[in-house]
Amino acid sequence: MRVAVTGAAGLLGQKMVESALTGGSEVFPFDMIGGSETAAGPVVELDITSAAEVRNEIASCGPDWIVNTAAFTAVDDSEGDDRRVHEVNVVGVENLLAAASAGGCRLLTLSTDYVFDGSAGPYEEDDMRNPLGVYGASKAAMEDAVISHGGSHLIVRTMVLYGAAPGVRTNFGLWVLQNLRADREMTIVTDQMGNPTLASDLARLLLEMMERGAEGTWHVAGRDRVSRFDFAVALARAFGLDKNLIRPVRTIDLGQAADRPLESGFTLRRLQDDLRLEPLGLDASLGSFRAEVERYGDGR
Question: For 2-296, which CATH superfamily applies?
Answer without folding.
Answer: NAD(P)-binding Rossmann-like Domain (3.40.50.720)
